[in-house]
Amino acid sequence: MFHYKYIWINFIVLIIAYLIGSINIAIIITKHKKKDIRKEGSHNAGATNALRIYGIKFAAGVFIFDLLKSFIPIMIVYTVKRLIGNQFILPIIAGVGAILGHIFPLYFKFKGGKGVASFMGMVLAYNWVIFLMLAAVFIFITLTTRYISLASVISSTTTPFIGFWKTFNYEGIFGYMQINTPYPIHAIIVVFAAVIIMLKHIPNYIRLTNKQENKIKI
Questions:
Q1: pLDDT in the model for residue 201
Q2: In which domain, by residue range, is 59 found?
């Protein structure tokens, strides 16, 4: 039976995940070097800008860290959920909290990255098949256009639609986790996360329209 205390539990999960997501390794490391990645390149504290400014190794580390910021909290909440057998605790809330923390980090004046890697971590936690589809779309768009921003937006926004399709075969929007909770809630949450990422890329849309967006070197 649903109880309003579960609203508070999910809210606490959201806050804790937000605080975890606010830990931005790109900012921490560059500040340690007396720099600030937010003042260089595209001024974005994420893997893409790290790739442009500091190279593939640093960018890979940033990407993995940002991905795990959402993946690990989701898996922890999911494990607790399974142990206590409660269907009203939503692990995906932890993913959204981590994404919001990455984009609006409490510790760094609410100026962080754009949430793509953390979004991918959320997808990976729920369904590795959909994660591979998302990654394939991302890589294809990147290789054909050399615009990572375009690849990020397209892959993020197509994920909910892939989730809808997978639902015909598996339970829940990201089936393999066996979430056993009302499907529309997860659909709404995933779409919300994708919309936030789209809004964060508005400056990129403008630069793409004006043909001023930087391409990556392949």
A1: 85
A2: 5-209
